[in-house]
Amino acid sequence: MSPQPQSAVGAPLSRVDGRLKVTGKAKYAAEHHVDTVVHAVVVDSSVGRGRITGVDTRAALAQPGVLKVISHLNAPKLAYRENGSSNNPPGERLHVFQDDKVHFHGQPVAVVLATTLEAAQHGASLVQVRYDAERPSTDLARAPAHDPVTYARGDADKAMRSAAVRLEMTYRTARTHQNAMEPHATIARWDGNRLTVWDKTQWVGGTQTELAAVFGIPRDAVRVISPFVGGAFGSGLRAWPHVTIAALAARVAGRPVKLALTRRQMYFGTGYRPAYECGVRLGSDRRGRLTAMVHDIKAETSTYEDFQEDVLAAGQMLYSMPNVRQAYRRVPLDVNTPLYMRGPGFATAAHVIESAMDELAHHLGIDPVELRRRNEPAADESTGLPFSTRRLRECYTTGAREFGWQRRNPEPRSTRDGDWLIGTGMAAGVYETVRKAAKARVRLDADGTALVEAATSDMGPGTYTSMTQVAADALGLALRNVTFRLGDTLMPPTPPHSGSMTMASVGSAVQAGSDTVRRQAIKLAVEDVRSPLHGANPGDVVVRGGRLHLKDNPARGETYQRLLSRNERTHLETVGSFEPPSGPERFSLYAYGATFAEVAVDARLGLVRVRRVLGVYDAGRIISPKLADSQALGGIVGGIGTALLEHTVTDHRDGRIVNANLADYLVPVNADVPDLRAIYLEGEDREADPIGVKGLGELVHIGVAPALTNAVFHATGRRIRELPITAEVLL
Amino acid sequence: MYPFSFTKVSDTREALQAGRRGGRYVAGGTTLVDLMRETVERPHALVDISALPLREITVTERGGLRIGALARMAETATHPVVRRSYPVISEALQLGASAQLRNMATIGGNIMQRTRCTYFRDVTAACNKREPGSGCAALHGFNRSHAILGTSDHCVATHPSDVAVAFAALEAVVHLLGPDGERGVPIVEFLLRPGDTPQREQALRPGELITAVEIPAHPRPLKSGYLKVRDRQSYEFALASAAIALHLRGGVIREAKVAAGGVGTVPWKLPAVEQRLIGERPSAALWADAAARAADGARPLAHNRFKVELLGRTVERQLRTLGGTR
């Protein structure tokens, strides 16, 4: 921990970039002005599988303003080298415009370049593509699977046979899309063999390596800029085909190219959370102590890439039990490749585990909270490691108290309010604490202001603000005198802005760099005979409000400005680093939460309305409480969507996504989002990282959907094992 | 979007001239512009009629209500006479679209709005409404939101309007002005069932302009309201809806006007339900028995079978809400 007084960290600040955002001055990917830019619009495949037999571009090219139409017939061949530092799953990524094959409905098959967006759009609608179409395979329930990833401890099958209580269920969750506000967009410009792109991405470094690999150029020849991201929820973690198309088109056109996906195109032009079918078997004794669990999990992936996410870990460590067997099969379909979406893997796993636990609690007549308490492990049973911190019991206690859980009549369908059946439910949540190597440049200028830079991203959690807070405290500066910049590959490298690892990784690097610069200044002062601090022990000096002084004698000191100008130093600078501990982990590192929910169900009309949701989180230290709330409430809203509304619908006849727009793909609107509340257990995790955080953004989404569906069961007595829960099922 | 010309007209004569030359009328543009962007609609000429003097909402000499075709959804919903005498209209409007859309969209445009069938709105899919003879992708596709009433083998798309359902219940008349003069058409005749010409959605003659929607005078005061059932609480089209107006005197239902939305290819008037109600005393049994007739003749599809049950329950619930008794 920092020896510095912590006044900015922990303060409920508004976003430091809030004014820029609400005044429209924050520039998103498609908004950067690049001279001589031309517009690109992608033509998508209207068949779900097959070959392109012809591309008639005459009508498009005849339109005023249309410059070029690029397809596999005339596109330059690209290198498509392997890229080890990316989120590309095993397999071979889609090669744009390199052959006549169609792998999925909506695959890019051509791009139209024009001097105006309107001309490009119109041109794209005039390109006639002919296909030799085949019927695609898009149904998870009907297609064969890859070999499974498996896990086993003990003998789950044997234990199941001898268990006093056995339950067997299958849960299905729909494919869902991230649906961020900002559409994906890329502007690409070549200067000779150097490529600059302005991109919507959660990882400028990933886009950089991918473009370098695709075009066969050195990594350093690619610069990626992404200062603002209008939400992403995981969709910005790969450089999707359109990013390559923009760069390819810019090379062909000899001019910068801007390409923005339409909302419709985002449903097949970027990733999504795959549909899942999860078989679960639970064995327990009569007191609810788990003896065995078996998971048979199936999820969709594309035919060309084998996307996997961590749906197994939670089942291995959330509860104590000697016997576990898991199999995770990916089913290759004629679809585009899925990707991470908020709470990846764990959200799905939690839905399955926490729904099953609720079924067990009801079966045994044990309170759902009590059942979970009875199965708390003493250590991580998947690794044998001790938990760094695990305060799930406190989450239950605090949550139950604040929610009023004890007032609940455990009998399903026992509470009514007019036409509404009222129910409450709860679920645990868990997400791994991830941290990776990161760097941050910290420069303290002679005017007493600091500039901190790292190549990270801010897709919404408030990276700008939280990093400013960490730097301000470590440097001893007022917040207004610290500027944090991000989103440029020229800045020090950081890991992907995902997996709730940004605060732990980048935040630790920012703190390390800021500590170093502060110590440099202190050293300069105590060694400077003209400084009032001359001769002082550096360890006795702190900095507050830009003034260095003795901890015990604040009168003795001077400002950064005086110190630097007297020493004729324009600035002090360093690059701070964070490296996770090398060697095997000594602790099991996870963030935990418990979600409590109340719903009202009009069973006659098939309506579910959420009344209130409370989340209690053991996420380590909270750097920025106001933005943490913003994260938590957003994560809960996403969970409401998962449970009740969101569903990407595929027409299996031709692989078409039939609801590829926000009128037909339903996300919660304000009226669906009632009384939401988040509570964070105070504390920090000293084992996780130097700033004591465990990660929050993923965790807050995990466990929301099962808390809601468990509440629907409690309200109605009906167990619905397929998400989303819609009217036709409840009628 | 296909190229088009755009002309702003300042009086109805100019509008009709432009309409006769094949121009498409546009006011709020909240449906048409969307569909043009998707290239579902490809008009070569748009005629902006928003400056025409057709925005007034007035009580007619006979005591009916005349809503100018250009009255905005929002201002119609909050108009004092509408609120007081026709809550079913006000509620139907306020439960539709979003605040932003209601501020732009007009009453004339609302009843002209086109279906939300996703295959209609996706130009790469087969759709007889968009491209006659190409087939109906919805018939055996994903048809959860589609109609169970008034369908044909050529089209099963739902009419999306809420207020048109209220208009149908109240037996509103659409006033039209065309090259041959004025005429009035009852809304239930104005909006056409698909039959084998699903591309024809309204009984409009070439160049005709909607000038107003008139609610005829109902000498007996009506208690009315609109119930809309949908997956989320706002900003979504109806899975099923019921527009109902009742007049009770001496504990007996003297008048009943009932129409349903979200279930028909057009707003669906329910005469069998109305007839069952008239002359009866409110009771839970009556509501159930009347509502049981709501889905008479329904032809459900693979994904919308639930609407048969849901429609009856929606009508029953709204009857109870208006007519009382639990």
UniProtKB/TrEMBL annotation, chain A:
Transmembrane segments: none annotated. SMART domains: Ald_Xan_dh_C (SM01008). This is Acylaldehyde oxidase. GO terms for molecular function: iron ion binding; oxidoreductase activity. It comes from the Bacteria. It comes from Streptomyces colonosanans. Keywords: Molybdenum, Oxidoreductase. The keyword Hydrolase does not apply. PANTHER family: ALDEHYDE OXIDASE 1-RELATED, XANTHINE DEHYDROGENASE. Pfam families: Ald_Xan_dh_C (PF01315), MoCoBD_1 (PF02738), MoCoBD_2 (PF20256). InterPro entries: Ald_Oxase/Xan_DH_a/b, Ald_Oxase/Xan_DH_a/b_sf, Ald_Oxase/xanthine_DH-like, AldOxase/xan_DH_MoCoBD1, AldOxase/xan_DH_MoCoBD2, AldOxase/xan_DH_Mopterin-bd_sf. Residues 23-135 form the Aldehyde oxidase/xanthine dehydrogenase a/b hammerhead domain.
From TrEMBL, chain B:
Residues 1-220 form the FAD-binding PCMH-type domain. Coiled coil: none annotated. Keywords: Oxidoreductase. InterPro entries: CO_DH_flav_C, CO_DH_flav_C_dom_sf, Diverse_Substr_Oxidored, FAD-bd_PCMH, FAD-bd_PCMH-like_sf, FAD-bd_PCMH_sub1, FAD-bd_PCMH_sub2, Mopterin_DH_FAD-bd. GO terms for molecular function: FAD binding; oxidoreductase activity. The keyword Lyase does not apply. Gene3D superfamilies: 3.30.465.10, CO dehydrogenase flavoprotein, C-terminal domain, Uridine Diphospho-n-acetylenolpyruvylglucosamine Reductase, domain 2. The keyword Oxidoreductase applies. Pfam families: CO_deh_flav_C (PF03450), FAD_binding_5 (PF00941). This is FAD-binding molybdopterin dehydrogenase. It comes from Streptomyces colonosanans. The lineage of its organism: Bacteria, Bacillati, Actinomycetota, Actinomycetes, Kitasatosporales.
